[in-house]
Amino acid sequence: MEKRFNPLAADGRWQQAWDEAQAFRADDHSPKPKCYVLEMFPYPSGRIHMGHVRNYTMGDVLARYKRMTGHEVLHPMGWDAFGMPAENAAMEKKVHPGDWTRANIAAMKAQLKRLGFALDWSRELATCEPDYYGHEQALFLKMLEAGLVYRKESEVNWDPVDMTVLANEQVIDGRGWRSGALVERRKLAQWFLKITDFAEDLLDGLDALPDWPEKVKLMQANWIGRSRGLRFGFKLDQAAAGHDGIDVYSTRPDTIFGASFVAIAADHPLALALAEQDSALAAFAEECRRTGTAAEEIETAEKKGYDTGLNAVHPFDPEWKLPVFVANFVLMGYGTGAVMGVPAHDQRDLDFARKYMLPVPRVVAAEGEADKPIHDEAYTGPGRLVNSHFLDGMSVDEAKAAVIAKAEDGGWGQGTTVFRLRDWGVSRQRYWGTPIPVIHCADCGIVPVPADQLPVVLPEDVSFDVPGNPLDRHPTWRDVSCPTCGAAAKRETDTLDTFADSSWYFVRFASQPEDKPFDKAIAEQWLPVGQYIGGIEHAILHLLYARFWTRALKHLGMLDFAEPFGGLFTQGMVTHETYSASHYDQPEGSEPAKLYWVAPEDVEYIDGKPVERVSGRPITVGRVEKMSKSKKNTVDPTAIIDQYGADAARWFMLSDSPPERDLEWSEAGIEGAWRFVQRVWRLATDREPAAGEDKDLDRKLHKTIAGIAEDIEALSFNKAVAKLYELANALEKAQPSASRTQAIDAMLLLVAPMIPHLAEEAWSARGHEGLIALADWPKVDPALLVDDEVTIAIQVNGKLRDTLTAPKGADKASLEAMALESEKIIAFLEGKAPKKVIVVPDRLVNLVA
RNA sequence: GCGGGCGUGGCGAAACCGGUAGACGCAGACGACUUAAAAUCGUCUUCCCCUGGAGUGCGGGUUCGAGUCCCGCCGCCCGCACCA
Question: Where does this protein reside within or beyond the cell (predicted)?
């Protein structure tokens, strides 16, 4: 027998054995309980990175464990294969996006295979293939028919570098999420999905997701952003530019008697109308639009306004006139684009009022503070209404209800719920995406592509030598006849946002018939996904869209459930030290000039000091950061597998750091993992004459079995790893016995989900028949989970002074007696009797002196 | 600014309901085996003024007993951001 486990020989052999046995194929018709384990599918960028390895290893351990504990497991893999990078590659390297993407998929699939993941490759899918996106087009048309899709001329976020529209969710600090370019505003006819129809349900549904991280639920709740308030109309004392009133929305209708002005957004219809005759206003509005949306700009931007000269009439007092301003802090995109200004109780309104010398009447006050003037801080705390006529003396909540009731009775306002969430703009002016399956006819308008003409296949003969969408320049694809009237018509050349592709792929994994998107009955056998694992960066976009899409499918009667992912886990990043060197050789201690990043494999240590291998220049070791190409601190998983094998890489991904936290990759860490793999091999192959019982070892084993099961179910892989180290230590110390032989077999079963290749090799070397991947998880004997003896801590005044060994379950009196016999304790008590004795059975005795 | 999370040895971290803080790993020290090295094995490793004392970011509190609960600070990280 080999002295060492040789992964280079063994890994491939077992991967082939699993393939041949179809060990991980999910059976739709199995009578076993179903379990769907899913990791977020990758974008085929070309190579897998350590983040993928970590993500998929976690899912794999769970999937393998579930299989061993009697579940029929669905653990699929596919490719989120549409998107910008393929087009960028096409422009830079003159390759077709499809060729580039498919080559990347092949390369990454080969890499994933080498890690030995227990995946059902028979269900592999790529979103860029017509047999996937064709069904997506069918779903889009069903949503269109059901009124969940609409088209509207709208101002969009235009990314001038990527030459495409971005959803609000894809604009970060006023910049495109991918290109980083400053986003411009443009008017375009766009397709929208009515996610706002489900705003309330998407928010309330979060409460029914106990196995989601609170953090993610909170982020989604904030994003959906529900607020309750009053929408009401101010009349203008005289009509202007065709408007006789202004609708505003307020979450604080209780403060209505504290209003001192009305402010409207620069893009408000009234402001636009007025600006046509007022060049000064037009200039001010233009200035407002220019103000960036970046964080610092908003923070430092002064509240500015333009007095329109108009007056609004207070709804409770026809004599009370409020000046109407156009203000830079009012956003057209939220509420009605107009607000009532209550300076005493809103900080922005207060800043504005101070600048334009408007009154600041207090209408809410804490006990005894009714006369306390407002200075530069608005009062937003609780209290009772003052200076507010019929509201005086009410609490804030009572006053809100009273004002809403009056407004509704008087017919000038309505209590409403407003959401921050906007409809999902899905049109992209790109080639490499799912074609939107509609035809524009001059006579018939928008005509859906008939179902029997789906899929609308992307044409392959396109060129990328000009910026913009090549579909616009493709006459034979674009020009069609209208399916309704037969006249000349044009295809929609926009494609769907790639987030649409990832909004239902988990359903297609569960069921993939040729003639329809999925079979309801089969899909529902697997869904919802039991455990979904991926990065926190998808907390809002992907997860919200997928929740919406699932609700839309339910609305269409295609599914019976609303939440796609029962359990969600967001794993931490893989990080690495960063290394930099200077272009100029300088005396020590001087400022480093012109630094450049150095990759880990180009760093070597000479006399304990890091230097760049090629130049010998000294290296500065920088912060530990997420592995990224820009910082060059990446480690290629394939190189690691070549050197250490898949199991060591997998083991390292699971050790040390809790899975939700960042994991720092290090050479020492992977070396340690390698040593452990070899240790297990030595334990498993070191045959000994086996007889006799070892009760302590039996107990240790059964505690470990129970503990590991618990840890894997909770995804606490680092704790499971620690327990396995303890078991290995115990096995090495133990004398040969039948117990030990059994424990070694059991240990192989316990490590099989984590280091499956070694487990198979050792399992077979020890003469077992069949694949360990398909073996049963060892049974726990509950009798062996309890000890006969326990260690009792003896404290004096809460401080540990001694310990003693007592039989499990010893009564309080005998524990106390034993404690008082301890010589150390006698010394500490200096002969005095304790004032009080606290005994916690099987744990401790605390003597209070 | 708003919301959330986290602070434990040289490092990554354990510690279930308030009950022996530091399991387990990394790094390190010493030793064994070896012609030698690698590999492997063994012992030690929170700190200090070391028969004792201190110690889980800092300061208080509750309790027989606090890493864990409460109050007040400090620091770091993440998300959102003029949302009316």
Answer: Cytoplasm
